[in-house]
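@channel sequence for tomorrow's demo:
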Amino acid sequence: MPSYEERSIIGKQIVITGATNGIGKEIARAMARRGADLTIVARTESKARATVAELSAEPGAAGRLDYVLADLADLSSVRTAAARIVASTPKIDILFDNAGVHSFEGGTTRDGYELMAATNHLGPFLLTHLLLDPLIAAAPSRIVVTASEAHRAAARLRPEDFAEPLRHSAIGSQPIYGRSKLLNILFTEELAHRLAGTGVTVNSFCPGVVASGLIRGSRVISAAARTFSHTPLIRTPEQGAQMGIRLALDAGLTGTTGRFYTSTPGLRFLPAVPARRDDALRTSMFDRSAELVGLH
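structure tokens (generated this afternoon):
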């Protein structure tokens, strides 16, 4: 990756989801090493505690590190976590919407939504909106969304049923996962449009194929991914985190918004998928998502 001029984030307030493993932990590590104040949003308290202790011991970690518990698949949990963050953090300089899941077995959330649509899109959608006031207060600030080139294999996207529960096989999970990643990109583009003039930028990226603990429902495949991470076929979490780190630190990206950056060689030359060229679809998906999570 080309070198770039880093802006200072000493004392800056950063919120990141999915930081207890994988690329999220490596992004959090990079932020901690540069002296940022860091709030981790995590599902499991024991992992959150261990991660905060680990990152606090990193060289240069002079900032305040803490955690808030939330399950992004549970909208009530997201609201509680957001309220706690806002109460203690009047300004947020960078929000990383990083957490995600690829479920081979599928599932339905307590709110009645398809598991990957809820975890990868609706939960982050709600969290981001509930944190907009402190993000705007900290402007110029940045939102960084972890998406994926898997969006190119997305299932059909329709506002009326994209979050409806459904059953699928392990093979059938790929287009459903891809759809949730397409939603990440459309969300990035539409939110950037709606936040124009606020000083808050929104960009998304693909980390490449990473052995990150993303997959649920298959210990065998997760173990295989860890094995292949020692080969050029699959990236390590540290490698996969680099683009997300850059989107937070690159001084040259100040003011850049609504972009999708890929870490997969060659794919940046491919044209955008049709859904990304459909402004009406992008707007309707945004509005439908707001309706589903109870925003008005």
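heads up for whoever presents: The beta strands are 13-17, 37-42, 65-69, 94-97, 102-103, 141-146, 200-206, 215-216, 259-262.
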